[in-house]
C-alpha cells in the first residue's frame, strides 16, 4: 500500500502546540503499526501572512490538493486583526475549504462520561449526548455573490451579501446527511428558515424530494433555525443528525459544542465529493479556535486535534481499528484523572499540553 | 388625557387564550386606576386568512397605524402550513413589522428567582440573569432584495436572499442599543460575523463610529455570532445589552430565551422611530409562538403576554407605576406557588390559563 500523504497545517496560536502532540501519535503509528505516512507541512492563516504576505499561499493549496488528507490546527489571532479583509487569516481557511471543494463539514457533539459534569447544562440533559451536526461549508452567505460595501450617491453606505443555494449543492449535502444517519440512528433533522427565506424553501423542498427518492428508510424532519437553537438547549438528545446551511451550521454547531462543556475535546471533518474510487478530499480540524490568550503556554488541550486525527484515520484511510485505539486511549487517560486546564475538575490532575500528548501515546 | 388607543391582535392558537387574560388586566386598570383605554380588535395571521383570504388585511394595518400601541398574541399553526409562501400566517407578522417601521425588537431574557430551577442550565449559571437582546427587525435577510427561487436554463433551481444593511439602518438600531444600555449597566455587545460577511463589516464600523461620537460613556464590545451562541450557553451573565441584525437576533434571542427555562414568561417589544413628540409606534408580543399542540386547552401560560402588556405601559404610555404593579403581581403569584404546565415544578400547584390570569388580577 502506498504511503498516506498527509499535509499538516499547524496554523496560528495553540494550533502549533496541539499539532506537535498529533505528531507524536503519528510517529507512534508509523513505528508500532507500520503505517507509512508521507508527511509535509504548510502555512495557512496568520503564520502564512507573516512569511508570504498572504494568509493563503498558492503553495499551500497545491500541497493540499496533492495530499490524501489535511490536518489543520487553527487560524487567527489579534496580531492580524487590523489587516484588511482580504488579508485576514480567515481568508486562508475559507479559501482552502472552497478550493478543495469541502462542502460537507461533520461536527459531532458528544459528551464523554468522564466529562459530563463539565457542561453548564444539567447532567441529565447532556450525559451520553451523541449528535452529529452536518454543516454545508462552501455555499450560502459565506461565498454568495454579489457581496461588498458600496457608497450610494447620497453618501449612505450599503453592505450586502448573498445567501444562495442551487439544487445540486443542496442534494449533495443532503446525501451526506442521509448516509451518515444510516450509520447512526436513521434520523435527519433539516434546519432552515423556510417561513421567511425563499432560499431555504428550496432547501426544504429538495431535502423532502431526496428523502423520498433515495432514502425512504431514513426519517426526515424539519425545524426552523430559531427553534433549533432553543431545542439544542432544551433537549439536545432529541437529535441524531442535523443538516443545515453554512451560516446556520456555524452558529448551531458552536452552540452544540458548548453544550458538551468541553470544546477542547471536539474534532471535525470537512469532506469533498467522492471520486471514482470513492475517495474524498478531506481536511480535519478541532472545533476550537487558535485561543491566542493561552497560546505558547503549553496549556491548550490537544485532545480535539488528536481526535481529529482519529477521524482522519477513520474517514480518509479506512483505518477504523487505529481510530478506535486513539479514541480508547483518550478515554482511558481522562478516566485516569488527567485534565488540561480547560476541562479541569476538582480532584483531578492538571497537566500541560505536552504531558497530555505523551500520556495518550503511552496509553496507546 | 386622551384615551389610550390600543389595538389587540389575538392571532392564532394560544394567542387567543392568553390575550383573554390580558383583557382582564386591562379591565382592572380601567376600573381601579381610572385609565381610559380605547380598545379595538383586529385579525392577523391564520385567523385573518380564514376570514379574509389573506394573513394581513389592509384593515389591520390601518387600525395598527391609528393605534398608540398594538398587543399581539401569536401567529401560525399546522392548519395553514400548506398555504403558499405569500399566504402563510408569518407574512402577516412580517408585513405589520415592516409597515409600522418597527425596527427595534427588545427581547429581555430574565430569570425570576422563583423559576431559576426551571432551566436546563445549572442554577448558578442562570440565577439572576438579566440581559437584553436588541434585534434589528425590519432589515437584513428578512426583507433584502433580490430574493426568490429561479430555474436556470439547465433546469437547476437556485434559491436566493439578500443580506443588506445601510448606514442609517445600522445607526438607528445602534442608538436604541446605547440608550438602553445607559439605563442598565452601560455595556453593549454588538454581534456580527465581520470576519466573513462584508455586510457586517459595515455594521461593526458604524457601531464603532456611533459609540465614539455619541455614546462615549457606554462600553462597546464586538463578538462573532458563533462565539456569541457559545458564550450565551457558557456564561450568559457576562452580557448586558446585545445588539445584532435580524436573522442573528432571531436565533440568539430564542437561544437566550430557552436559557431562562421559561419561554412562557418572556415578553418583547418592537419599536419604531420616535416622532417629534418622542412617541414611537409599538407592538408588544410574547416571545413564545402559537403552540398549536396545547391551543384551546386552557393550559397556556398567559404571563408572557401579561408582561408584554406591562412593557407596553412602560414604554408606550410612560406608566412605570402600573407596569411595576403588574410585574410585582406576577412575581407574587409565582412565589405563592402557582404554575402553568410549562413551568410546573414538584411541590407547586398546577393551574389553568384562566386561573393564572384571575389570580394575577386578584393579586393586583
Ligand atoms: C474562522 C471562521 C471563518 C470559521 C467559520 O465561520 O466558518 C469558524 O468560525 C468555523 O466555524 O470554522
Ligand atoms: C414567525 C417568524 C416569522 C418570527 C421571526 O422569525 O421573526 C418569529 O420566529 C419571531 O422571532 O418573532
UniProtKB/TrEMBL annotation, chains A, B:
This is 3-isopropylmalate dehydrogenase. Its EC number is 1.1.1.85. It comes from the Bacteria. Coiled coil: none annotated. GO terms for cellular component: cytosol. The keyword Oxidoreductase applies. Its main location: cytoplasm. Pathway: Amino-acid biosynthesis; L-leucine biosynthesis; L-leucine from 3-methyl-2-oxobutanoate: step 3/4. Its cofactor is Mg(2+); Mn(2+). The record marks 142, 193 as: Important for catalysis. SMART domains: Iso_dh (SM01329). NCBIfam families: leuB (TIGR00169). Homodimer. Binds 1 Mg(2+) or Mn(2+) ion per subunit. NAD(+) binds at residues 77-90, 289-301. Belongs to the isocitrate and isopropylmalate dehydrogenases family. LeuB type 1 subfamily. Substrate binds at residues 97, 107, 135, 226. Mg(2+) binds at residues 226, 250, 254. It comes from Paramagnetospirillum marisnigri.
Amino acid at each position: 500500500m502506498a504511503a498516506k500523504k498527509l499535509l499538516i497545517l499547524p496554523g496560528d496560536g495553540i494550533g502549533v502546540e496541539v499539532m506537535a502532540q498529533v505528531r507524536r501519535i503519528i510517529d507512534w503509528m508509523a513505528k508500532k503499526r507500520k503505517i507509512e505516512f508521507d508527511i509535509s507541512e504548510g502555512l495557512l492563516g496568520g503564520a502564512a501572512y507573516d512569511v508570504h504576505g498572504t494568509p493563503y499561499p498558492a503553495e499551500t493549496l497545491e500541497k493540499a490538493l496533492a495530499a490524501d488528507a489535511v490536518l489543520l490546527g487553527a487560524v487567527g489571532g489579534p496580531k492580524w486583526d487590523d489587516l484588511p479583509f482580504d488579508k485576514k487569516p480567515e481568508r486562508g481557511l475559507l479559501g482552502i475549504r472552497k478550493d478543495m471543494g469541502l462542502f460537507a463539514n461533520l461536527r459531532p457533539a458528544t459528551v464523554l462520561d468522564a466529562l459530563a459534569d463539565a457542561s453548564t447544562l444539567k447532567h441529565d440533559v447532556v450525559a451520553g449526548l451523541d449528535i452529529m451536526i452536518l454543516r454545508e461549508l462552501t455555499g450560502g452567505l459565506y461565498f454568495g455573490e454579489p457581496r461588498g460595501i458600496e457608497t450610494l450617491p447620497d453618501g449612505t453606505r450599503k453592505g450586502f451579501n448573498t445567501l444562495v443555494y442551487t439544487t445540486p449543492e443542496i442534494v449533495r449535502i443532503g446525501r451526506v446527511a442521509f448516509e451518515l444517519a444510516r450509520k447512526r440512528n436513521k434520523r435527519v433533522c433539516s434546519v432552515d428558515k423556510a417561513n421567511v427565506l425563499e432560499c431555504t424553501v428550496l432547501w426544504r423542498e429538495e431535502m423532502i424530494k431526496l428523502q423520498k427518492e433515495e432514502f425512504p428508510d431514513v426519517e426526515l424532519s424539519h425545524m426552523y433555525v430559531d427553534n433549533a437553537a432553543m431545542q439544542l438547549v432544551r433537549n439536545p438528545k432529541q437529535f441524531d443528525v442535523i443538516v443545515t446551511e453554512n451560516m446556520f451550521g456555524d452558529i448551531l454547531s458552536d452552540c452544540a459544542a458548548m453544550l458538551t462543556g468541553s470544546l477542547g475535546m471536539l474534532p471535525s471533518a470537512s469532506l469533498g465529493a467522492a471520486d471514482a474510487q470513492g475517495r474524498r478530499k478531506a481536511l480535519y480540524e478541532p472545533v476550537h479556535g487558535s485561543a491566542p490568550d493561552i497560546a505558547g503556554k503549553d496549556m491548550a488541550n490537544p485532545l480535539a486535534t488528536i481526535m481529529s486525527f482519529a477521524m482522519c484515520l477513520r474517514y480518509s484511510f479506512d483505518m477504523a481499528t487505529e481510530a478506535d485505539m486513539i479514541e480508547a486511549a483518550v478515554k482511558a487517560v481522562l478516566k485516569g484523572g488527567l485534565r488540561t486546564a480547560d476541562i479541569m475538575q476538582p480532584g483531578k490532575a492538571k497537566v500541560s499540553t505536552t504531558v497530555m500528548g505523551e500520556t495518550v501515546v503511552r496509553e496507546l
